[in-house]
Each structure stands twice: as C-alpha cells, then as structure tokens.
Amino acid sequence: MAADARVSVDEGSEQQPSHRALDNNYDSATYKPAAFRLDDINIDLISVIITTATAAAAVISILLLHQPPAKLIAPATAAAASVLALRLFLPRPNPPRGLVLITGGSSGIGAEMAYIFAEKGHDLILVGRNEEQLEAVKNNVKEKFARSAYTVAADLSRPGAAKELYDHVTNHGFTVDVLVNGAGLGGVGDVLEQSIEFAERMTTLNCISLVQLTQLFGKDMVKQGRGWMLQISSVGGWMASPGQNIYHATKHYVRAFSEALSLELRTYPGIVNTQLMPGPTHTQFVTRAHAEETFMMAASGAVEDPKAVAMAGYQALCKGKRMVFGSWNSAATALMMQLAPRSVHLTFAAMMNSPLRGRMRMKEPEKDQKARGSDLKER
Ligand SMILES: NC(=O)c1ccc[n+]([C@@H]2O[C@H](COP(=O)([O-])OP(=O)(O)OC[C@H]3O[C@@H](n4cnc5c(N)ncnc54)[C@H](OP(=O)(O)O)[C@@H]3O)[C@@H](O)[C@H]2O)c1
C-alpha cells in the first residue's frame, strides 16, 4: 500500500446502532435474537447460582436452626457439579476454514500462527511492515506447506491504516474467513518519560486498529454466516504495571473488548471469537519493547515458545473458546493477579516490570525468519 495514502475511517453516524437496530437491519437468516442458550457462560452461571444459594441456605440454617442442612448440601453440590459437567458436551463450532489474514505475520507468534494455518491447508494474507521478513515467511509457507501467501506491508499504528488495509484486501477480491489480530508493540519506561507520539502509535496499533479490523472483517463474516477471529492480548492484560503502564493498559483494553465481543457474537452462530493471552514469550517483541532487562523477562528468560503459544491459540479457536493462555505459567500469573489484594497486585506488578540495570538480561531472540523457518523441518 502506498505509504502516504490516507483513508478516512467512518466518523460515526449520528445514529448509534443499538441491539434493536441490529434486530431491524440484519438479515434474519444470520442474526438470531439473543435468547437463553446453553453455552459455557450460562452453564457456569447456573452452577454459581446453585452454589451460592446452597451456601446462603447453609448459613441461614446454621443461624436459625443451629445445625448445618446436611440433607441439602450433598444434593446441591452434586447438582452444581453435574451442571458444570455439561460443559464437556457442548457442541463444538466448525473448525476454521478458508483464507486467513494475520496481522503481525512477519515474525514471532504471528509467523508461527501462519505456519500452523498453512500446515492445516489454509492460504494466507500476511501483514506487517518488514517486507523482507514477510517475504521470508511467505517463502516458508510456500516451500514447506505448498500454500500461497499474499503479503501486505502496512503500518497499522497510523490512524486510518486498518480501513486502508481492509479496502486493499477486499479490492483485490479476497474474502477473509479467519482474522488473526496479532500485530502489537510494547514499550518499557515511565509514562512521563515516553513520547506522546510513541504512546499514540502503541495505542493505535494495539487497540484502535485491532477493533477496526474486527469490525470491518467481522461484518463481512456475519454476512457470510461464518468466520473466526483470534485476538492476541497478553497476560499483561491482567496487570496494572508501573514501568509498562501503557502497553499493559492497551492489553486490558483488548481483553475487555474481546471478552465482551465473544458474548455479543453469541447471537451470530458460526462466528467465533477467541482471545489468546501469551506470557513472556521468546520473540523480538521483548527486545523491541526494551523489556529484556525487566525482572519478568530476564528472570523467566521469556520462556514461552512462540510455536507452542500459537498452537494454544489455534486449538482454542477450533474449540470456540472465549480465551486461552499461552501456558499454565501465564494462567497462574493471571489468576494470582485477579485474586490478590490490590496492594499485593501493584507491588508484585511493579517488581515484575522493574529494570535490573544490566544485572540480568534475557537472551536475544532469533531475529531472522529464514532461520526460524529452518525449525520447520522438524514438523
Ligand atoms: N513476546 C511476548 O512476550 C508477548 C507477551 C504477551 C503478548 N504478546 C503479544 O503477542 C503479539 C505478537 O508479538 P510477538 O511476541 O510475536 O512479537 P514480534 O515478533 O515483535 O511480532 C510483532 C508483530 O507485529 C508487527 N507489527 C509491529 N508494529 C507494527 C505496525 N506498526 N504495523 C503493522 N505491524 C506491526 C510486527 O511486524 P513488522 O516488524 O513487520 O512491522 C510483527 O510481525 C503482540 O500483540 C504482543 O503484544 C507478546
């Protein structure tokens, strides 16, 4: 795409579409009004209601009758457990098929995602800025998996770039079935030390472009009656982190956006939205964000393997999961951050993101996709 091209994004019409407007305007063949549906969220909800009601009944019984309601607890616990077990029997969505567009497909997790999809038989559109790396991933896809990849060099940290990319792709006659929003940028440092322009680029790339691509391609998916979206956020989306403040704040944004989107999509059968939350992963991201000397990256060695993280995302998408962590380690960190008192949370997050000033440093990750491509022989 021309580097200086600008396409204005919808300024937003006066009329905000409401659920009712969706009801009225959308094709009833694809839009199913939100009715009660037995999905993972409702199953968990019923189970929580039974458990809470049982606990309340037990407390009331102890206070009024001075004895625990033994006859109530066992059947209620069994009921809650059996409702939860229903999760195992939920119907799975169709596995992804068709053309896959990956932003951030030129390196790291996005490139590994490209190889996984190519191995499963998908053709690809790869988006990034580094044309050489895009070309290297494209060649690997072609040589190792005999699939085609179309590359688009685009800077998604510019306002309007997402719409430009959408127009470019659709004008070339492509219909995107699977959207992987993987492009992301981090930045270590105190907020008041960071430039306003850098913060704006990070926010535009990590949040605005991700949302706009989801809206643009998502609307087409609704019309097609099928589609799969994978949003890459971060375990940082669970941490309020002094020293990595804006980056982790952008990932909070993506986490909230993606979770709520998954619920909105309950009314569109055939459209899946999954969020992948990696922890410290051994990619160029860490050095680009100047995070290699933070306690979190240096002490862990950014151990998560991008291939394994990408596979976790792919498998979760196939199962129609709302969210998945890159590893058990990330899941445990997020759980701890969720449960810890705020004082503990903030102290721990500050410690994790503090710089070690040369005392410890993460090993420089592989920069060259040609070299990473050599890993593919093992597949
Ligand atoms: N590595 C980690 O520890 C970690 C942890 C949690 C979450 N994540 C998230 O995982 C995702 C992938 O990161 P990664 O670890 O695979 O790092 P990476 O190797 O640096 O990949 C980042 C990708 O984003 C693309 N990108 C960066 N700026 C861009 C821009 N302005 N316009 C278009 N594309 C741009 C890069 O392409 P070009 O270089 O070609 O521009 C690259 O393909 C990111 O969203 C990141 O926030 C990473």
From TrEMBL:
InterPro entries with a match to the protein in the record: NAD(P)-bd_dom_sf (IPR036291), SDR_fam (IPR002347)
Q: Where is this region: Disordered?
A: 1-24, 358-379
One GO MF annotation is:
oxidoreductase activity
Alphabetic keyword roster? Membrane, Oxidoreductase, Transmembrane, Transmembrane helix
Q: Where are the transmembrane segments?
A: 45-65, 72-90
- Source superkingdom: Eukaryota
Q: Does the keyword Membrane apply?
A: yes
The record's annotation in SUPFAM superfamilies points to: NAD(P)-binding Rossmann-fold domains (SSF51735)
Q: Where is the composition biased (Basic and acidic residues)?
A: 361-379
* Record family assignment: Belongs to the short-chain dehydrogenases/reductases (SDR) family.
The name under which this protein is listed is Uncharacterized protein
